[in-house]
Amino acid sequence: MAITFDCECGESLEAEVRHCGRKVRCPTCSERAVVPFPPITFDCACGQSLTADNAHAGRRVTCRIYSLSEVTPTLLRREHA
Questions:
Q1: Which of 7, 24, 39, 73 makes the best surface tag, with the fewest CB within 10 Å?
Q2: What is the DSSP letter of 17?
Q3: How far, in Å, CA of 5 to CA of 25, rounded?
Q4: How far apart are CA 39 and CA 41, in angstroms?
Q5: pLDDT at 73 over 70
């Protein structure tokens, strides 16, 4: 699976999910950009689909419909140092 994101120069970059958190070089401006983690999408107990930034993994988020509190799952971890 690939992630598409933008460099500061505006160039659209693409990288594999396994490279999340790592730096890649932009072919247009040669600057290094960090590959972002994709958002986490999961279901609330009420059945609504919730989306949270990967920075919120393991934290509680609140369903906007029924105000239920759910823990955001941890889906991605960087396994390579």
A1: 73
A2: G
A3: 13
A4: 6
A5: no
Q: Which two tokens stand for residue 2?
A: 């690939």
Q: Where are the domains of the chain?
A: 2-34, 40-71
Could you give the CA distance from residue 20 to residue 5 in angstroms, rounded to a whole number?
11
User: Residue 58: what residue type?
Assistant: G
- Measure Cα distances from 65 to 48, 50, 57 in Å: 8, 10, 21
Phi-psi category of residue 75: left, alpha or beta, with phi > 0 → left and psi -120 to 50 → alpha: alpha
**Residue pair 36/76 in contact by the 8 Å Cβ criterion:** no
In angstroms, the CA 67 to CA 31 distance is 42
Q: What is the pTM of this model?
A: 0.59
Residue 77 has what pLDDT? 47
